[in-house]
Specification:
Largest sheet: none
Helix content: over 70%
Number of domains: 1
Radius of gyration: 29 Å
Low-confidence stretches: 195-200
Order of helices and strands: HHHHHH
């Protein structure tokens, strides 16, 4: 009898440990969701800053030059040197913002895949918990990410997910397409010929 009692207590402890692990995993998913939401807002903000810098580069150089001359009080030969360097500063700022956009995008995709993997893991964990607790199929305990999600999820959830991907993908595509279009050298022979044809 003592052996049966010990086996029962070990089984109960195992089930309790699995349920506690399930709860910790749910909290971890919540943490990743919050981080991903903040990261999405950060990415859109950095992307907006990159667009602003990209299309106002001619205005950044004179503004930066005026600020430096005012606060550093340059004079003489230093002013022409500064005027030669300030356009480069706008290009460096844009390059840093573009690299930040790449990094934030890759990190956002990675975090999203982690969240999806955790949800799949939790749905499999629910089946294990239900088996261990001998929950009958008519009850919904521990079906939040499995059976209950499949029943309760609506077409709106899928629509929101698609909108999320479409909006972010469109913003990134338009930004990088615009950068390629405006930054690509036009003095290459094929482009020079096509430009002349357009002017005729």
């Amino acid at each position: 009898m003592a052996e049966l009692g010990a086996a029962g207590s070990i089984e109960a402890a195992r089930v309790l440990a699995v349920v506690e692990h399930y709860q910790k995993t749910a909290e971890l998913i919540q943490h990743h969701w919050e981080r991903r939401s903040r990261q999405f807002v950060t990415l859109v903000t950095v992307l907006a800053g990159a667009v602003l810098v990209a299309f106002s580069r001619p205005l950044i150089a004179p503004a930066l030059e005026a600020v430096i001359i005012h606060y550093v009080r340059l004079s003489g030969d230093n002013v022409p040197r500064l005027q030669a360097l300030t356009p480069v500063a706008a290009d460096i700022l844009l390059a840093l913002l573009v690299v930040s956009v790449f990094y934030l995008t890759a990190s956002l995709v990675n975090r999203t895949s982690i969240i999806m993997n955790y949800y799949l893991y939790m749905s499999l964990l629910e089946d294990e918990i239900r088996d261990n607790l001998k929950v009958p199929p008519t009850q919904f305990a521990f079906t939040r990410e499995g059976v209950f999600y499949n029943i309760a999820s609506s077409a709106m959830t899928l629509l929101i997910a698609r909108c999320y991907k479409t909006v972010l993908g469109s913003l990134l595509f338009l930004f990088f397409a615009a950068r390629l279009f405006f930054d690509f050298p036009r003095d290459l022979p094929p482009f020079a010929f096509s430009t002349e044809m357009l002017l005729l």
